[in-house]
Amino acid sequence: MKVEDFENEVFKELEDIPGVGPATAEKLRKAGILTPRQLALYGLDELLMYVDVDDYSRINRALMRVRRAFRPQKVLRASEYASMRSELPRLTTGVKSIDQLLEGGLEPRCIYEVVGEYGTGKSQLCFQLSTTVQLTVNRGGVGGKAFYIDTEGTFSESRIAKIGERFNIEDPLSGVLVFQPMNVDEQIDCIRTILPKYIEEEGVKLAVVDSLISHVRAEYRGREMLVARQQTLNYMLNFLLRVAMMYNVYVIVTNHVVAKPVAGGGVTAAGGHVVAHGTTHRLFMAPQHSKRQGILVRRMLVEDSPYLQRGSSATFGISEKGLVDVL
């Protein structure tokens, strides 16, 4: 068969893939890989970590065919790439100043990292996005659900309900799926197997990890575990990016800060270079230590981005009904 023939193949079940028989399909399902599209997320060496197979060449050919079926290999001219990106729907944050800072809201197929000290509004932004994603396209949403990975136990259904009232969403809680991993292993399994399942079955359009690094910092202690910690962070971010690109979904992760061990002090994002390279846009949330009409004032600053202007910022407030513009 020619390469272009592979791109026209349709696989509905794992057994439809040439080289994947009933026994192999059962092994894949036990590893949490339930559909051909989910299988296309994996590379050979990675797959062999989860599935015990004897014929490596056979499973490698199966991977090649399923990847070609779901992600045809296309080389785009830069003009075509720009046109493709411009057609992707943006997701509103519900705050005009932040949407303007982000050039229209969040874009899919990438990872937004929100960094800040406690109380600066990171989780509040995640709650609001989990609500606005449910809005119709003409209101700035995409008519989808949110999958919220809560690693710190800070998910607030009452905040979602209040924000939903503001946006006139009848039952906002039904549009948010929550998973609370107990440790790093559960967090990886959720990103790797549970998240893709719910994207396919429940119409999830937004993935939230709040926070990315909490379990990792707790379990990988000391400099002797630094390499393992960084590899774990890299794997989670890389898999999230694969999911974002495969399914055209929006991804946002929150991150802690650590003190800079230099004269003058200050704070920087936790996770080092791995997290900095693994996310697409890094946004810093900073307190303004002021109130306007009883609303806490905060500032979002672009620290790193492929196209957003570094150092540009937006001022917003945290109110009873979520994040709002402030005058």
From TrEMBL:
Q: Which domain of life is it from?
A: Archaea
Family designation: Belongs to the eukaryotic RecA-like protein family.
Q: Name one GO molecular function term.
A: ATP-dependent DNA damage sensor activity
Function per UniProt:
Involved in DNA repair and in homologous recombination. Binds and assemble on single-stranded DNA to form a nucleoprotein filament. Hydrolyzes ATP in a ssDNA-dependent manner and promotes DNA strand exchange between homologous DNA molecules.
- What are the record keywords, sorted? ATP-binding, DNA damage, DNA recombination, DNA-binding, Nucleotide-binding
Q: Extract one GO BP annotation from the record.
A: DNA repair
Q: Which residues form the RecA family profile domain?
A: 87-257
Keyword Nucleotide-binding tagged: yes
| Pfam families in UniProt | HHH_5, Rad51
Please report the name of this protein according to its UniProt entry.
Answer: DNA repair and recombination protein RadA
Which residues are listed as membrane-spanning?
Answer: none
